[in-house]
Amino acid sequence: GENVEQHPSTLSVQEGDSAVIKCTYSDSASNYFPWYKQELGKRPQLIIDIRSNVGEKKDQRIAVTLNKTAKHFSLHITETQPEDSAVYFCAASNNNDMRFGAGTRLTVKP
Amino acid sequence: KAGVTQTPRYLIKTRGQQVTLSCSPISGHRSVSWYQQTPGQGLQFLFEYFSETQRNKGNFPGRFSGRQFSNSRSEMNVSTLELGDSALYLCASRTTTFQETQYFGPGTRLLVL
Fold first, then answer.
1. Which residues on chain A are in Cβ contact (under 8 Å) with B99?
2. What is the mean pLDDT of chain B?
3. Residue A83, SS3?
4. H/E/C letters for each residue in A52-76?
5. Cβ of A43 and B44 within 8 Å?
6. Which of A29, A44, A88, B55 has the highest local Cβ count within 10 Å?
7. Do B43 and A100 touch (CB under 8 A)?
């Protein structure tokens, strides 16, 4: 089955700096890659996603890149703000299930 | 539209008991997935129901089961509870396939004593 690895497990940045979180997956049939943000005590919420026919997608300060050949995808957050502090999960999905990375705890210091 | 709802929000059980959790998807969503979230194992896929049928299943023992009703509401059952079953159980709904955006419910926090 699919295996998703996510790095780093914790990330601390200064407000205004950029943050990058990386994930790798093992199943070449995976074709949908969402990213979720989970604040303390709250449900995971989708922040951006990318499908396998696209290499990059951007939404304001957030971007995701996908390298299908290398089987890795990354989340980029620019101009980080304290409210970006949360746990971020990557996921990879084929037609049968969705597997999540272990999560990255991002702390943005004011 | 109303979001995904789950009941109950909190539950305390003892080892050996069984528990049933409920999930109401967003109106029009026919796919409901269940996940277990623990600090040690992260978010793990339990199973997915679509049109009242279990369509996909993760790597969990048979003590974990579920069902879906004709109105797409889903229930998850855990029998013979173990201490390690303590977790946040999240359900998520989507329109049809895994390639569509899924929306999570608030979760049911289960504590097994």
1. 31-32, 51, 93, 95
2. 94
3. helix
4. CCCCEEEECCEEEEEECCCCEEEEE
5. no
6. A44
7. yes
